[in-house]
Amino acid sequence: MLRPVLDSDNSVLPAGAEPLWRVSTGSAAVLGLRPAALDAPPTTAYLMLGERCSADCAFCAQARTSDARADQLSRVNWPAFSPDETVQAIAAAAERGDIRRACFQVTQSPGSHRMAQQAVAALAQVGGVPICVSIGVSDLQEIEALLSVGAQRVTIALDAATPELHARIKGGSWERSWRLLRAAAGHFPGQIATHLIAGLGETEEELLNLAQTLLRMRVHIGLFAFTPVPGTHLADGQAPGLESYRRVQAGLWLLKEGLSVVDAWLFSGGRLMDYGATGDALAVWLAGGEAFRTAGCLDCNRPYYNERPSGPMYNYPRPLMAQEADREIACLLHSLEM
Ligand code: SF4
């Protein structure tokens, strides 16, 4: 079994040494890098590059002024390993069929683009899995550079669904990110993704309208539930209500599957009241509960990013059991008073 080079903090790395890659605890277990008990193994290898981020998103453990641990992102810890060992471990896990995608989360810092390109190139050379890179970009050339060394997809995270929330929670300009995202979606069709976080203060109507626009632009959407993380500025915030999150998940699913459009839905004060379909039709569309699984790139299941293993389960990281699916659909219909 391979051992982590460092326990958790890159700061003890000798001067001039190759930067380490952080690997989520669950990914490290699937890759055989570090043992951990898993009841829901990740099917994507989640990797993090870089030190503390120069950006200052209020929800993020890696934010510039966050007091969260340096090896944390969302609810997950990320021990550090050597890039070579990690690449070999991913190749072996891909061959076993245990890992079907790799995703680099890149913190913003001097040299982070060069580091990301080198990392993508190193992993792509070994091959075996499609590679996503979630990174702050300032122009199309930076996206092109990542795609040209082997990334399948580049993610420009909007996170917040409205310009006002973006300004308050992330700082910077939502419009600027939006313009870049739109241009990128046009230049690199199908190769651009974004992240949306439900529960930052937006309404269901705002988030789902945005989701529909993004899907029409062929932008892939990773949906997250806001998770208060100790040490961050929003540590005392509230996760979204589960019923509201289910309405958003179901709405996103109906849009993605082409089963409905936002214009057919009824909202009251931004809350979704009616999908413009009978309860029976909704139950058929949502049968099996796929809508309540983690939404994102193919094979991205992000176990326990947003929830404790004891629940409540915002994003199911695996297929739902029949009784789970029935319960979630009943809960959704109840929240719509059907
Ligand atoms: S949806 Fe998942 S795999 Fe895709 S960029 Fe986001 S975290 Fe990575």
Helical content (DSSP H or I, runs of 4+): 25-40%
Percent strand: 5-15%
What small molecules does the structure contain? iron/sulfur cluster
Shape: globular
Radius of gyration: 20 Å
Overview of the molecule:
The chain has 338 residues and is α/β, with parallel strands linked by helices. Helix content is 34%, strand content 14%. It has ten helices and twelve strands. It has helices at 25-30, 83-96, 112-126, 140-148, 163-169, 174-187, 204-216, 242-256, 279-285, 322-335; strands spanning 21-23, 44-49, 72-73, 76-77, 80-81, 101-106, 131-134, 153-155, 192-198, 220-225, 266-268, 271-274. The protein has an eight-stranded mixed beta sheet with strand order 5-1-2-6-7-8-9-10. A two-stranded antiparallel ribbon has the order 3-4. Strands 11-12 form a two-stranded antiparallel ribbon. Iron/sulfur cluster binds next to strand 6, strand 7 and strand 9.
How is this structure best summarized?
The protein has helices at about 25-30, 85-95, 110-125, 140-150, 165-170, 175-185, 205-215, 240-255, 280-285, 320-335; strands at about 20-25, 45-50, 70-75, 75, 80, 100-105, 130-135, 155, 190-200, 220-225, 265-270, 270-275.
How would you summarize the topology of this molecule?
Layout lengths: L20 E3 L1 H6 L13 E6 L22 E2 L2 E2 L2 E2 L1 H14 L4 E6 L5 H15 L4 E4 L5 H9 L4 E3 L7 H7 L4 H14 L4 E7 L5 H13 L3 E6 L16 H15 L9 E3 L2 E4 L4 H7 L36 H14 L3
Parallel strand pairs: 2-6, 6-7, 7-8, 8-9, 9-10
Antiparallel strand pairs: 1-2, 1-5, 3-4, 11-12
Bound molecules: iron/sulfur cluster (SF4).
